[in-house]
Amino acid sequence: MSSKKIELDHKDMVHDSAIDYYGKRLATASSDSTVKITSIGGASAPSQLLATLTGHYGPVWRVGWAHPKYGSILASCGYDGRVIVWKESTTGQWSQAHVFGNHKSSVNSIAWAPYELGLSLACGSSDGTISVMSMRPDGGWDAATIERAHPVGVTAVSWAPAAALGSMVGSDQLVHKLVSGGFDSVVKVWEFVNGGWKLESSLVSDMHTECVRDVSWAPVLGLAKSTIASASQDGKVVIWTKGKGGGDKWEGKVMRDFEAPVWRVSWSLTGDMLSVAAGEGDITLWKEASDGQWESLWTKGSDEPQQQETEQAAAEVAAQ
What we know:
This protein is mainly beta. The chain is built from one helix and 24 strands. The longest helix has 12 residues.
């Protein structure tokens, strides 16, 4: 698997990175209080710093690109409790389109909703709440709040796919659901019903014994089950499934104990492969076999020749 090294101009630790929809630009978040946007370039073309965005007053934890249907828009969150939505003009200049400062402490995670649901951003904070910011047709923003979502702090949020289970492209049946993880070691599923966010399921188990570092809801296009991956400080990645014979109850299964903190999990666009970042920079790629066991497809640093399927899967995961 080929790789490209990109030199970043940050002055401190980088906490997050996100590639845009077209795979051309990389946004990074750092403890130096800035967000930087860098062109990735080609195999031989050098990367280039395009913009440095300032507006946070402390470490920036996460960045995320909105769907290009809404223009060139990026969101960031940080230790200062602020969530900033950035917009690029036609001349390439970036400005703050909206600053959301309602959280009382660090905002640890942000996630854009599927584009079918409109321009909406979920935010999880150490103050225990989840907020969902949605842009109105007039360009203003509304905010809905889930109070005491995880009373000791929210660490991660992820949206469910907008398509209902078993539906195909073009279906008008849309799903408004979120999954969250917290310092309480619990994974929770939320649903927007009757004008407000309600708790659908609290996935309490003894499989996670320390805080949940990340959650990721897998794409479900055409499938008859929902799948969520959760990653924990305790080293375990748990796969939660619902439907397809399991009824309406979420069932959890430990995919693997990495014996080191697991920081991030991310699904491929097809929803059948999972990338895992754990420990001191260990990145692995996994696929579920027909017998339900998970097989390792790729490990960062492996010199073994990789199959085309693996290369495509890694590219899909990187593009998310």
